[in-house]
């Protein structure tokens, strides 16, 4: 099965470990993520202004590209891209006059956007198209009693229209995924709390405090590692541990992986797919302590 | 600041309502937004107080408040409001009425990034911060 894939800017740079692990593990599951041949930045945040149509041009152009590729489904990995594309799509579907204006702005395009693309997040695709049972059958590495905290953040769940789980206040989709991989999910009170988002640029202290609270909450729940699906959450929870350590010297580092990295690990894929080199906190030590056998092999390659 | 029919019906209040697309009068101050807000401890006015300031047309106080600038647009307030008010959109409108001003000074000075950029921030962090905190 092939599906149109929109990477977005960060998957090609900072979060290459997210993309590489996703493409490799989806290929193992028989799904080809077919990157749009041409794409632009989605704008990263969905404009909440009623009068600012221009802000929706970028995401709608990406949906036009999806149709141009002959597809009616688009999958994304980045939670910010997912949120922006999904909400802009809903907005123009509900407002045909706005869609017409946007199409008029894109008059140099060969086709117009007909509003007929659907936006999916990879976790939804894994659950609904592949099925967690199928994922379970493909697991070759015993993750033993590795305790994994699912961290959703904001943009996969809120508002309700974008939620990848029917229960946005108490979601379980990531726990089901972790269970399918053979690890132990540990839910924790801060799993849907904001990490501080873009204020990481101008209010670093605020983000260090937010991340510290979230990481300690996961640790108190017994987590060995944390799973995320957003490159901004990953940066704030992982790289910002440097700031946390400066502020709280007794703080102990905790690895933060993309959910696709754990999937690749559980399916026995090599370092080219795992890309742990791009995670600031190295997960290999904890994986070795937990006797996750493939970790050693992959790490030594 | 004096509160009067004039301030309550001021162009400022109308503009915030127009940009956000929200019925500001629907808020009855239950405080659920403030209770769930992860940034509330850093705000000089928690979200429900901030909405009250707008309802009353207290423009100077709204402009001075750091509330919309430490808002993370995490949508917790929006999904929990029992009156169905999209509070995240009100915060957006409060930022925009200021950044669209003729004599606007961006809340975030892009030039100040300098050294921070060296640490290779993810592109989504930089773009989203600019989108929320500058007129660009």
Tell me what you see in this structure.
The complex is a heterodimer of chains A (301) and B (136). Chain A has 15 helices and eight strands. Chain A is α/β, with parallel strands linked by helices and 301 residues long. In chain A, the strands form two sheets. In chain A, strands 2-1-3-4 form a four-stranded parallel β-sheet, with helices on both faces. In chain A, helix 2 (57-68) packs across helix 3 (79-94) and helix 3 (79-94) crosses helix 4. The longest helix of chain A has 17 residues, at 204-220. The model of chain A has no long low-confidence stretch (mean pLDDT 95). Chain B has 136 residues and is mainly alpha-helical. In chain B, 53% of the residues lie in helices and 0% in strands. Chain B is globular and about 50 Å long. The model of chain B has no long low-confidence stretch (mean pLDDT 93). Chains A and B meet through helix 8 and helix 10 of A and helix 2, helix 7, helix 8 and helix 10 of B.
Briefly say what this structure is:
The complex is a heterodimer of chains A (301) and B (136). Chain A is of the alpha/beta class and 301 residues long. In chain A, 45% of the residues lie in helices and 10% in strands.
